[in-house]
Amino acid sequence: MTLRFTFDGRDYQGRNGDTLASALLRNGVHVVSSGIRTGRPRGILTAGVEEPNAIVQIEEPFPEPMLTATTVELFDGLVARGLRGQGRLADRPDPARYDAIHAHCDVLVVGAGPAGLAAAASAAATDARVILVDDQPQPGGSLLGAGELLDWVAETVAGLRAAPEVRVLTRTTAFGYYDDNHVIAVERRTQHLGAAAPAGAIRERIWRIRAKRVVLATGAHERSIAFADNDRPGVMLAGAARTYAVRYGVLPGRRAVVLTTNDSAYAAALDLHTAGVEIAAIADLRSSISASTSPDAAGSEWARRCTERGIEVLPGWAVSAVTGEHRVSAVALRALTDSSSTREIEADLLLVSGGWNPVGALFSQAGGRLTYDPALAAFRPDGGCRQAVSVAGALAGTYTTSGCLSAGVEAGGGAGLITLPVVEEPEAAPPIAVWTLPGAGADAFVDLQRDVSVADLDRATGTGMRSAEHVKRYTTAGTAHDQGKTAGTLTSGVVAELLGVEIGALGTTTFRPPYTPVSFAALAGRDRGMRFDPVRVTALHGRHVARGALFEDVGQWKRPWYYPLDGEDQHAAVLRECRAARENVAMMDASTLGKIDVRGADAGVFLDRLYTNMISTLKPGAIRYGVMCRPDGMVLDDGTVIRLAEDRFLVTTTTGNAALILDWMEEWLQTEWPSLRVRCTSVTEQWATVALVGPGSRDVLAGLAPALDVTRAGFPFMTWRDTTVAGLPARVCRISFSGELAYEINVSWWDAVTLWDELSARGVTPYGTETMHVLRAEKGYPIIGQDTDGTVTPHDLGLGWAVSKKKADFLGLRSFARTDNMRTDRKQLVGLLPVGGELLPEGSHLLDAPELPEPPIRALGHVTSSYHSAALGRTFALALIRNGRALHGQTLWATLDDRLVPVTVAGSVLYDPEGARRDG
Amino acid sequence: MAERSPLADVDLSDTGDRVTLAEVPFLTQLDVRTSPSSSFPEPGTFRTDELDGEATFIWLGPDEWLVVGPPGAQKRLTERLESGRLESVSDTSVVDVSAQRTTLELRGPGALELLALGCSLDLHPRVFGPGRCAQTTLAHTPVILLQRKHCVTTGEPVFWVLVRASFASHLASWLLDASGDLTAGH
Amino acid sequence: MMLIPCPWCGPRDESEFHYGGQAGVAYPADPGALSDEQWAHYLFFRDNPKGPFRERWSHSAGCRRWFTLTRDTVTNEVTA
């Protein structure tokens, strides 16, 4: 099938199964991008995820920056362009869906090459639960590029797919290896379909895999060698060229020169030759290789095969020059030991193999160690790892197919349970380590994506850099979005050479997740928009919505903020709601307050230790306000304590602290006071709570609760009654957070709507959190977390009356006597009256002079709450001010925008200081 | 007016053809805190018990169980617990938490996958079979999860998810959204 | 994502737990008998070792039990 695509504004055609890179090569496009610093034209170096050069931006169907052409699967209608190192984010919201899924298995196999497939099949044969992940569209790994054992691959994959406890995930990259064998992978589900992707389908899925055991078969990446002009389009890794020819049916050039340090390039040369590429010469940096066709020549089987095909093998030869800027046109070779022996060869392709680097990123992330193996000329996993992980195949330094297969079977745990195909392979000759060729300097690149050359590394070491990590940060080598997959070991090799140390002693830089770039959208998954964090709502939420409430987030809760009538703004709505509460009757949904049932013979003793004030003396039927501190004496929470029976209390917490206080209680009970016979149970959503507030509240309640004695004497302040309200079983508490006559009516969460509708039918005005804040602030009642910040004691808040002087100990007591807490200049909560009627911003700083002094400026304190008051007919604020109570009546200055405005310090209780309105 | 369950206004029918979702409202739920004894199920398990033949005892912690029964059984179950089952009443609390959580029943061939989209526990039948329970999080929401049984006709698992009333609409909305993303087979 | 072994519920993701800091820091029997310095030591001073560390965790999203374990602060390995 023909696929149409556009690259850099020109239209091309590719084939099904192409990557963008193979399709570009198919169309003779060799310049894909340009160097980020040098601007030099750059082509395609690799055929996979390790690509440093061919960086592209997809424009259609949806903009995606910084992709590698070697991993973008071609689809019809693809529009892309090459990048010079930097992409561009989409300027419109991504319409695609993303999600995440958890998975568990006995054996996770990463990589579906020969070792990984064998490991998965072997593990599956033991009846283990197996997950096999591979980043390619189809399993096979290196076998796909070599065209080997494809029948075995197909057969094995079919068997795995049919097994009930095996999951095969293709197009899935394991990018992070975390504690306790937690491996995170991203599955690309619809990108390869382009615009044909089904609407609403999940585009990418994050897999969070917890494995009992992990087999890493992540293979190896070929690396280059640093020589002058090694970045020219047409310079390609030998294995990549082989993949393009064998797997994609594309010839990356017509006439090639090969430069190698190891056997693998010979196999590539032979396959390319078979495919129709003329191989002009193979320059093998190993002088020891014999090109003799004699079967006795030890270790030169590959060279012999090439010679038999008429391919010239030049042992001990190197590349001395590359000609051609936009495409290689000729390659000069020179004998290493005899500089007078040279060749100038016309070629459009220079195939390089500087050796193979085991892909140790995940193994390293798992905590495993990579050490340099001179026999392999590479870093490889060395020894065990604290996590249950094993390595197999090229990752372990095994480069024969038969070796990979048997290592995979071993790692999978099913040795003896499956049969392997027999593979004939030539005897191998050992590779050598070569990092630079003679004359490598400013044009000899180690990191193509960052344009870091041998000269840059020389400058770094010349400056005094001595470690791989320092050189990385000084030169940026290895910091591009390929994270130095082709550059890392090469950089270390060159630096070791420059410093005259062993590469093994120098080491490499640290591998960190993600192995390949992952989109933020995929990581966010379903946790976007309204599902970013759970939204908690009360039983009355639908009623609030219907009344047109605007909502405020309080922790995870949605609370009604205010209920504007037609044409009202917030200011007008809040003034109206305040007036209704102060002058008539109003109601608020208070169901979000945390409620904890505290029960047991020692419940009173327990609460005495947690609260600053005395709780055990509370009589059943009565209610007390209480403050909790941490041992450091700072206020933790406040609320009411209801004594339901001798051994039973109901404690309320602030909305945001319900879970925290229950945990707090359990912590002290379980870890410090296990002998106390106390049980704590959350009942926050068992009860819905409506606060009925205002001088008219008594009449409304009396009408709904005919059996309840609502008189002052019959139902005094700070007591509670079980009764029937609106025909519902209810607990009514005579408490007030506004200073007005008020009741809190508690009914079953299931009955909340009935109660609310009955109150609404009686014309009670609903009010939201903003009005609640104004009403309580007028009375100087602090809100924990708004007027406090973890450095405030009860005394600072003026709540010294709630601190017991009788109890031997309670949490916080000892700290009240600490020197710092006895200072007279601690910040204290006071009221503020702006002289000019301004509304001060919360957080506004307070100074003792009308002009800003020279820095450093030491503020006296800051505004914690600030409102318009209907009852006072003015604006006011609460503030924490150093020694504030002593400043009563004085003028201070508050920051407001870029000016200072005068404010008068007042007491914190600004409305009804006598408390005359409390009993109606 | 009638009692209203937390999901009374939520249409749970649009879950595709791989799962079904239903609210089981108004169940009696009693939180029992007491010393461990052999008459209560082991950690991580629940069982339906002879107590009226209708109460399900769910392990929540080493000294905590949730007793779930049919609607309206609060008084009867509390009395039976306090008169018979509990060994030391002084060290025991039975608290009515019936309205604290509502119950979602989830079944169908896609039920396991749907849960895996939001829950980190291994719910594979080899690990989490019928009779297993756990307190954990689903869609970042605290839940009590029960593997009730395998459906007699299809052999597929039936789960109960007990969720706090305030989180119920978030969780239902999440389940409805995620149910559209289930894959055929695995 | 570490797995924390809850003694009751088995291994669970660390996100189900609350961290409780160094284990074995008991609330003093008689805080009133301590000097400011001794009391400050209880309030504010904790070990911060590189290596094994006895610490408290609470399975807050599960059984809500507190327990103590030893974790290596370098490798996150839980050893006891």
From TrEMBL, chain A:
<dbReference type="InterPro" id="IPR029043">
    <property type="entry name" value="GcvT/YgfZ_C"/>
</dbReference>
<dbReference type="InterPro" id="IPR042204">
    <property type="entry name" value="2Fe-2S-bd_N"/>
</dbReference>
<dbReference type="Pfam" id="PF01571">
    <property type="entry name" value="GCV_T"/>
</dbReference>
<dbReference type="Pfam" id="PF13510">
    <property type="entry name" value="Fer2_4"/>
</dbReference>
<dbReference type="Pfam" id="PF08669">
    <property type="entry name" value="GCV_T_C"/>
</dbReference>
<dbReference type="InterPro" id="IPR023753">
    <property type="entry name" value="FAD/NAD-binding_dom"/>
</dbReference>
<dbReference type="Pfam" id="PF07992">
    <property type="entry name" value="Pyr_redox_2"/>
</dbReference>
<dbReference type="InterPro" id="IPR013977">
    <property type="entry name" value="GcvT_C"/>
</dbReference>
<dbReference type="Pfam" id="PF17806">
    <property type="entry name" value="SO_alpha_A3"/>
</dbReference>
<protein>
    <submittedName>
        <fullName>Sarcosine oxidase subunit alpha</fullName>
    </submittedName>
</protein>
<dbReference type="InterPro" id="IPR041117">
    <property type="entry name" value="SoxA_A3"/>
</dbReference>
<comment type="similarity">
    <text>Belongs to the GcvT family.</text>
</comment>
<feature type="domain" description="Aminomethyltransferase C-terminal">
    <location>
        <begin position="827"/>
        <end position="912"/>
    </location>
</feature>
<feature type="domain" description="GCVT N-terminal">
    <location>
        <begin position="540"/>
        <end position="807"/>
    </location>
</feature>
<feature type="domain" description="SoxA A3">
    <location>
        <begin position="444"/>
        <end position="526"/>
    </location>
</feature>
TrEMBL record, chain B:
<dbReference type="InterPro" id="IPR027266">
    <property type="entry name" value="TrmE/GcvT-like"/>
</dbReference>
<dbReference type="Pfam" id="PF04268">
    <property type="entry name" value="SoxG"/>
</dbReference>
<dbReference type="InterPro" id="IPR007375">
    <property type="entry name" value="SoxG"/>
</dbReference>
<protein>
    <submittedName>
        <fullName>Sarcosine oxidase subunit gamma</fullName>
    </submittedName>
</protein>
UniProtKB/TrEMBL annotation, chain C:
<protein>
    <submittedName>
        <fullName>Sarcosine oxidase subunit delta</fullName>
    </submittedName>
</protein>
<dbReference type="Pfam" id="PF04267">
    <property type="entry name" value="SoxD"/>
</dbReference>
<dbReference type="InterPro" id="IPR006279">
    <property type="entry name" value="SoxD"/>
</dbReference>
<dbReference type="InterPro" id="IPR038561">
    <property type="entry name" value="SoxD_sf"/>
</dbReference>
